[in-house]
Amino acid sequence: MRVLLDGLLRNRKALVGAIILVLVLLAAIAAPLLTQYDPSARVGRPHQPPSWNHLMGTTRIGQDVFARLLYGARTSLAVGFGAGLLITAVGTALGIIAGYRGGKTDEVISFLTNMVLVVPNLPLLLVLAAFIGQASPFVIALILGLTSWAWGARVTRAETLSLKQKDFVKAAEMIGEPQWRIMTFEIFPNLISIVGINFIGSVIFAIITEATLEFLGLGDPRAISWGTMLYNAQKASALSVGAWWEILIPCFALALLGLGMSLLNFAIDEVANPRLRTGNWRDRWILLARSGEGRL
Questions:
Q1: Which of 26-35, 40-49, 57-66, 275-284 comes out lowest in average pLDDT?
Q2: Span 45-81, pLDDT tens digits
Q3: φ/ψ of residue 30, rounded to 5
Q4: Could you give the CA distance from residue 283 to residue 289 in angstroms, rounded to a whole number?
Q5: Are 58 and 47 in contact (CB under 8 A)?
Q6: Beta strands of the chain (E only): which ranges?
Q7: Which residues on neighbouring strands pair with residue 58, listed in sequence order?
Q8: Which of 17, 81, 224, 250 is the Cys-Cys partner for 229 at CB 3.0 to 4.6 Å?
Q9: CB-side exposure of 17: number of CA atoms within 13 Å?
């Protein structure tokens, strides 16, 4: 754990990614201090271009885009981190239990994991969201968390099977340590890098998927998030009438946050896999692509 943290502190990708993520988090937290406008109120003329009064322009009904961007970041981040935490917790717990206990337990968990992996994720989410109808951000986060844990469980199980044969695990078993303690204090700490990669990837996936579902009109249109901003801009034909700011600004925010999280993900990959710190750029990208094949 300490080696991982020391490596991240010296990694430039981790530094840039952390700066981007912290800036977005601070902007979301300090939204009332950064803007005087209510994100739901009409405060200007329809489709007013960026100006000193409205830094990022207004929407079709005169709402301030900058205010909606800041307050929408709260919802998008809450969905991303909430769903990412649930995905990671479920996948890690099931993967460790299946890998360490083996036998019937492993067979049952592996069967459930394969069932979830076989079903295409995005179509399943579309069907569930359409069935619920105007799903709230909380419901979307819950659906994502309960349908997207399988990849993390499979990778964690594979690593647990390897760690299970290590001397420190065998020593803990010989002195009579209970299974829950071995899994929690002996195996889990050695999976931190994999858990971190799984968590960051899950957060990115949750934020983008939530925005996609809301853009398609399957979320709650009354919620303020980057996805509903895109949905409202699409309904208002923002690009057709020249209001480019209404759709490009939330797209840029999503891309910037995705870049920051991806840099953190790459940094953890590099620290956890020393081969990625050597060789030329072509070799690094090949190794990253191979390490990510199991996630697709």
A1: 275-284
A2: 888 899 888 889 999 889 999 999 999 999 999 999 9
A3: -95, 20
A4: 10
A5: yes
A6: none
A7: 64
A8: 250
A9: 20
**Cβ–Cβ < 8 Å for 229, 69:** yes
- Give me the domains of the chain, ranges plus CATH numbers: 2-295 (1.10.3720.10)
**Alpha-carbon gap, residue 52 to 221, rounded angstroms:** 28
Distance CA 132, CA 44 (A): 35
pLDDT single digits (tens) 214-258: 888 888 888 899 999 999 898 888 888 888 999 999 999 999 999
Burial 258-293 (b: 16+ CB within 10 A, else e): bebbbbbbbbbbbbbeeebeeeeeeebeebeeeeee
**3-state class percentages of the chain: helix first, strand second, coil last, to nearest 5:** 75, 0, 25
Sign of the alpha-carbon torsion through 235, 240, 244, 248:
positive
Tokens of 167: 């001397």
Answer yes or no: are the C-beta atoms of 277 and 13 closer than 8 Å. Answer: no
How crowded is residue 128: how many other Cβ atoms within 10 Å of its Cβ? 18
Cβ distance 132 to 76 under 8 Å? Answer: no
Written as six digits, the tokens of 214 are 């809301």
Place of tokens 């406008």: 37
Instruction: Find where tokens 């530094």 sit.
Output: 15
